[in-house]
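ping. complex inputs:
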Amino acid sequence: MAKSEKYAVGVDLGGTNIKIGIVSQKGRVLEKLSLNSKAEGGPEKVVKQIKTGIKEILSGNKKKIRGIGIGAPGVVSTKKGTVENPPNFPGWTKVNLGNIIKKEFDINCYVENDANAAAIGEMIFGSGKKYNSFVMITLGTGVGGGIILNRKLYRGEIGAAGEVGHITINYNGPRCNCGSYGCIEAYVGNNYLISKVKSDLIVSPNQKILKLVNNDLNLLTPLIIQKAAEDGDTFSKAVISEMGEQIGAALASVSNLLDVGTFIIGGGVSGFGKPLFFAINKSLVARVIASLRNRVKVLPSKLKNEAGIKGASALVFYKS
Amino acid sequence: MAKSEKYAVGVDLGGTNIKIGIVSQKGRVLEKLSLNSKAEGGPEKVVKQIKTGIKEILSGNKKKIRGIGIGAPGVVSTKKGTVENPPNFPGWTKVNLGNIIKKEFDINCYVENDANAAAIGEMIFGSGKKYNSFVMITLGTGVGGGIILNRKLYRGEIGAAGEVGHITINYNGPRCNCGSYGCIEAYVGNNYLISKVKSDLIVSPNQKILKLVNNDLNLLTPLIIQKAAEDGDTFSKAVISEMGEQIGAALASVSNLLDVGTFIIGGGVSGFGKPLFFAINKSLVARVIASLRNRVKVLPSKLKNEAGIKGASALVFYKS
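pong. complex structure:
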């Protein structure tokens, strides 16, 4: 161990799992653990889980820890360290998670929205290392985002900036759960995507996919579509290519507005890999204004599975 | 005249007219003149016109001038003072307008993109005075924009930020002259709007409008639509209301991305007045994410006809 290397604890607070790890300043995960979130138990239960988890991971640790970073869903006030109305956490209105953890462990604690933490993670450890400005997009159940401008997280008026998922690509398009229409999330968010593909498959059955799901379309997942596409299935390839076109259209709006050319894409659905990235890039290049055409690039996230823990720990290295 | 009041020269470089004025720090226009742009004569001719115009307006002036501000179309490097490829200025690749004017008059000269200058003008003199952050939109032949974040102009990577007009609201929508599809400009930019309304009127003739244009649809302008709407014409009202819905959809994307709630709208078409603002606001409120719903507001520009000169002169007060 190099004497000068610094360490931090990263906490990735999710509705399904709470992941906690010790991460070095170089982005190496030394230890990690995962707990099933007892979100239904309300904030007290969850806070207790976080405390227990941090104690557990610190027991036996001999590294000097610089601080604790927490990536949480919902609107986060980084100054106060509060987390407000995180989706999938019932009974949780506003909790001062930062103060609670700081007091408990007598160490600096930094709280940030999880999508923003992911962007900071990519800037500190990942694909964003060498870019001054970029927009991070996370493709999963939802479509999240974080904006880095001149090596700083852009948070907006109340810290809610970066909602790339709720950029509309068709103002008369499908209803989105945010209340608007045609948001990119309403096209490529996991559930929307699967439900659209299912209804297409009911109209025109596809033997390759039906085989992969044992004739039960309820088993359809993005991974199944990916497998079928890799096997050469034309329908599945078209699904991925259309997704790319749609994502590229949303990113072109972002690029034209912000004059930022670099995008980093992570999250489950980005597992569609090269064909998806190819399609996003093609659509983006075709749609941005001339002065951006040679500057746009779409990069895959580097942090992958440990993005949550690394992003949260990066808050410590970013802010201290 | 108060001893402490400061003055600046503002130059609004347009493809049709070059407008020049002396403006006080409070936004009062002391003197102004307008020249027909001789854009077809190339940059040398235009630069000569600017010089002559400034000399003219300064002759007899006894106020101490703090500097000269120039709002120009195209991509502007504020550091270097260069103006690159301004649309409607043939033969103009890159001209260091800032240096030329600075040398000629031995005074500070600030050059900025015209849409950005308009945003700075609203911040210093107009509807943006009391807002930390807002997005300015100019509705005219094109749809331009400027982004103010924490009382500073946000310029992006090369100064091309704020292209609100090229946010798509329908990725399969009408072709835009930027090369993309369904940009808000391709719906509400003057020419697109008029051509769409014309073709609707050919299919379903409208007596009120036909009367206003003496049966010649080539005379159709936004002003005619406005007049017909004010006379209670249902079709014209619907045109304005649809425009508002479309603009609101684009602004919702901006708001969700930037977490900025305040919009200021200027330019010719914003003359549609209250019905348009009502429709934009309704669409915007319905479409933004929950955390923005109570914060969004759409304000008319205060600078109106003198927006160009005032915005350009505001560059001096903003930067010096």
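The radius of gyration of chain B is 20 Å.
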